[in-house]
Specification:
The protein has 293 residues and is an alpha/beta fold. The chain is built from 10 helices and 13 strands. Strand 3, helix 5 and strand 4 form a beta-alpha-beta unit. It is rod-shaped and about 100 Å long.
């Protein structure tokens, strides 16, 4: 059948136009080419499909029967082409994103708002998971891209670094004296420290660095989000380790100040992960472009 698809295409547009000449103009071929294609199809089917009148080409009974079926097929094809055009123009589509709570709120959400305002027809699905869980979702094909803390090494994953993050300690009014001057980690050893729970890249980075300094810092309280760390610090529970870039706007509002360190925590990176050799959808590709501007 597929080797004869062009013949059916010529038949379909000739039947719609009611004229060999107009069909040739629409298909950008010559009228003799249209005539030849129709004759080949009639020969293969063993029936006459058109007869000519002074008003043009008229379908025979057999031609009408064939048009009912061929017409449905080409209507589906045209519908598919329109769908593809809509997807390319971002009038339809979906993005599936994985990201942790902190990256979702402080990095993903502002960009999603901008993207949604520009392309409101695109459906957005966000799954909140840790970096290891986001990586697993990506490899299982359940998300198109992930926003994760780095470093991350995996031969199946493409990584784009997009953010440089700085972890810092913040203190509420109860420890206001610590927001002036600079302090060593040894000088802060007697103060309660608030950290994210184990399992996150942020916590792993903190533990790794302090161990390199020969310190074994045991947190007073472990919490599950940056927002909770800020809230607990503002209530005087201790010094919270937070991301400076994400907490900056909350410090003044919550009465918090940064504790300056003689040996600051090393900067970290965050970025976008996608599967190697798997093309992104048009919508996902456009969103990645927005994130990396």
């Amino acid at each position: 059948m597929f080797e004869n698809l062009e013949g059916y295409r010529v038949f379909y547009y000739t039947a719609r136009a009611g004229s060999f000449t107009r069909a040739a103009e629409h298909l950008c071929i010559t009228q003799p080419a249209v005539t030849h294609s129709i004759k080949q199809l009639e020969s293969r089917l063993g029936v006459q499909l058109f007869f000519r009148t002074s008003k043009g080409a008229v379908l025979t009974h057999e031609g009408n029967v064939l048009l009912q079926h061929v017409g449905k097929a080409f209507n589906f094809i045209e519908s598919g082409e329109r769908k593809i055009a809509d997807i390319r123009q971002l009038m339809e589509g979906e993005i599936r994103i994985g990201a942790g709570d902190t990256l979702s709120k402080h990095y993903l959400l502002p960009h999603l708002k901008q993207f949604h305002d520009k392309y409101p027809a695109i459906k957005i699905q966000v799954t909140n998971r840790t970096t290891p869980e986001t990586l697993l979702l990506l490899k299982e094909g359940r998300i198109d891209l992930g926003l994760v803390n780095l470093p991350l090494q995996d031969k199946h994953i493409h990584v784009q670094e997009t953010l440089i993050l700085h972890d810092c300690l913040v203190a509420g009014p109860q420890f206001e004296e610590l927001t002036e001057g600079r302090y060593t980690w040894e000088q802060l050893s007697g103060y309660p420290i608030l950290l994210l729970e184990k399992g996150s890249r942020t916590r792993a980075s903190f533990d790794s660095y302090t161990k390199q300094l020969g310190l074994d810092i045991q947190p007073e309280i472990e919490l599950g989000s940056l927002d909770l760390l800020l809230e607990f610090a503002s209530m005087g529970f201790g010094l919270a380790c937070v991301v400076r870039e994400f907490a900056r706007d909350d410090l003044i509002r919550m009465g918090l100040g940064e504790v300056r360190l003689e040996h600051p925590l090393p900067p970290r990176k965050a970025g976008i992960i996608t599967l190697k050799d798997v093309p992104l959808t048009t919508a996902a590709k456009r969103f990645v472009e927005l994130l990396t501007k």
